[in-house]
Amino acid sequence: MTKDVLVSISGLHMDIEAEELPQQNEETIEVVTPANYYCRNGKHYIIYDEVVEGVSGTIKNKIKITGADSVEIMKTGVSNAHMIFERNKKSLTYYKTPYGQMLVGLNTKNMEINVSDETIKVLVDYELDVNHEPLADCKIRMNIVSKNNREFSVLS
């Protein structure tokens, strides 16, 4: 994979308490942005900056993919967090935002990681709780593609 990549990240949050009308309580967020990629000691790293509306400054994001069972997302800047997703494990982290700090629990239920020469595809299915209160069932999809790959034009 080349150093210059395009990363597409989409997240789906389904409100746990919304059993009657689940379609109305799903919130999908998608980000497509250029990023830098490197592989060191068998671990894949993707680094990109994120701009937050209504707040000055940016968030530097680093995604670390280890094997088929671990994805870490590290955020520094306007928001700070170190989220660890490991298959069939729960992790806790403090998520600091300009509006305050939360204790976030991530219970990873399923994970799929597919790595090829020109793409990395990740799916993480997890339960999210904030301050020990169940909040949502969530999915994150990541598609990392080399800029020289023909799939790049599909994302851009």
List its traits.
mainly beta, 156 residues, 1 helix, ten-stranded antiparallel beta sheet
Provide an overview of this structure:
With 156 residues, the protein is an all-beta fold. The chain is 3% helix and 70% strand. The protein has one helix at residues 152-155; strands spanning 4-15, 26-40, 43-51, 58-66, 70-77, 81-86, 90-97, 100-115, 119-130, 133-146. A ten-stranded antiparallel beta sheet has the order 6-5-4-3-2-1-10-9-8-7, with no helix packed on it. It is globular.
Topology:
Blueprint: E1 4-15, E2 26-40, E3 43-51, E4 58-66, E5 70-77, E6 81-86, E7 90-97, E8 100-115, E9 119-130, E10 133-146, H1 152-155
Antiparallel strand pairs: 1-2, 1-10, 2-3, 3-4, 4-5, 5-6, 7-8, 8-9, 9-10
